[in-house]
Amino acid sequence: LVGLNTCYYIPISSSSFPQLERSRLSPLVGDTGNGEESAQKQKKIAMSLHRASHVRRCSSAALGLMALRTAHSLAAPPGSALATKLFYNDVYTVELPAGHKFPMEKYGAVRRKLQRLLGPGRLATFHESPLASRGDLGLAHCPTYVERYLNGSFTARENRVVGFPWSPASVNRALSSVGGTVAATHAVCRGECGIGGHLAGGTHHAFRDRGEGYCVFSDIAVAANVALRDYPHVKKILILDLDVHQGNGNAEIFKEDDRVFTFSVHCRKNIFSAPAVSDLDVELEVRSPHNILG
Hints:
By secondary structure, the protein is of the alpha/beta class. Helix content is 37%, strand content 14%.
């Protein structure tokens, strides 16, 4: 499953992928050594990622586009089970105060661009994101926290930390940000498509009982838990987070869950809140020649 905004994750089953065990990555998880040894290991990982993705300095949306183009170079027949199914939620918009720095218009722009690139040849189908259910949200978030947000009971400080003013429109936007990723997960796990994606979400700064950094609920965490709940063939999940910021919310949510491996590649100095500890963190320097994050 490819998320085109910030986060990428792959349901891993014994039938389709090798089992991903922590022991296989233990030399790189919390034990990278000090000084030159640690720097060399970080550099090696970054170079490996660079070679694997064949990119320099591109946004995560561009990485998603590249992933789709690479997948379709295999020439999956339109309408086949190998085709791409994409969900979008730009029908839900929030009126932001003048001067607000969040680029809300990017979601519609990405959808329209992809429709021009992929729609004419039927390389992908596009579907409006459904709203997430309370039951699904409760798999990753405290039910009391969920209800407080849905009924508008957040304090002024909580809304300020999230970064958006609360409104009924913001509730629908938050629910669709999760719902689209859950729908894409179902589509992949049911074999309805080869690639499922959501042109929103990636809200990796949402914790179990609080939000921050424009993230109320973690769509990735909810969808991962839905996959583990609903599909017995899904045994392991890898969350590969390529945002410039660390995926601290997902790292905290899954820190005690061995079924989910959190892997965050981010900028070392671009930290706006206390970092968490992922199963694997790769920190890149600003303007590093090996920085694939831009």
